[in-house]
Amino acid sequence: MLDAGEFFGRGHLALFHGSREVVARPAFGRGNVHNDYGRGFYCTESPQLASEWACPTLEDGYVNEYLLQTQGLALIDLSSTEYSVLNWIAVLLGHRAFELRPGAMAEARQFMVETYGVNLEGADLVHGYRADDSYFAFARAFLDNRIGVRGLEKALFKGGLGYQIVLRSQKAFGHIAFQQSTLAEGQVWNPLRVVRDSRARAAWEALEVESLYDRDDVRVIDLMRGASWGA
Known about the structure:
This protein is of the alpha+beta class. The chain has helices at residues 4-8, 47-53, 85-95, 104-116, 133-143, 149-158, 170-173, 186-212, 220-224, and strands at residues 2-3, 12-19, 41-43, 61-69, 74-77, 125-129, 163-167, 176-184. The strands form 2 sheets. It has a 5-stranded mixed sheet. It has a 3-stranded antiparallel sheet with strand order 2-4-8.
């Protein structure tokens, strides 16, 4: 694991959390266990992205700003060269709850989690890509052998996912301080959120078609048969 202070290089970090309400005191132990990286407090370094997250509808939301003291916090950075897209997708598959067709897809999920999963226990912070429901279609298609690893990588870079930072430990919660909360107007930010989502879906559909003709791409069934990736 990395030292978060060294990774972010400043000793402190401004974080933003988009919500339907003001969150002046983030509480350890709350949150959905089935989020991307499990239970934790999900933030971003981008106030613009947080504004979109705050407005899933046309109703107004709030962007909560915090200052995180990073020195002494243990970090797992899933977007670093230490990990691959296979590690990232395996972490998602290990936490997200979703329906699977019995048989091949369920077996593929178990294989990915057991082979490429990353143990996040002991990490105070996790940094990595964000996958909302539209982006999670990538994972389902991968398990269904409709897209390969190369297609999955392209989807990540073309989809405009954005990065998120998740506070997972009680220690991390002790290092965060609320700064202020500002209004995010739903009439402004929800349309931008919809546009981002539409562009991601369009890029995804194009990549899915492209992947059908990429016979050299490695699919999950190839990995299960012993093929390697990135060697």
